[in-house]
Request: fold
Amino acid sequence: MNKQRLSASVDAELIEAAESAVARGHSESVSAWVNDALRLKLDQEHRLEALAAFVAAYEADYGEITADEMNQAVRQARSRAVAVREMPSKKSTVPRKRRGSR
Reply:
């Protein structure tokens, strides 16, 4: 693939994260880490564009999706969801100790 040099200003914590990923062996270089991040962003934009096109086509055929229909879909999805961890209590603000911690 053809590579081009890029000069960009990046938040310090993101540079630290990239350098940390390289140090841990999770990325070949900071440039590779940035390239991966840009690829993920592009992929996300393509998915969002495809979703918008799907919704537009659906609404062209069946009419606008209403707020009530969206709320019903959320309720149905939540009713079928499988809890993989306990939800934090709204009353408790103190984090629970993990098993095995002292």
Remarks:
- The chain has a mean pLDDT of 90.
- The helical segments are 12-23, 30-62, 67-80.
- Residues 12-80 form one domain.
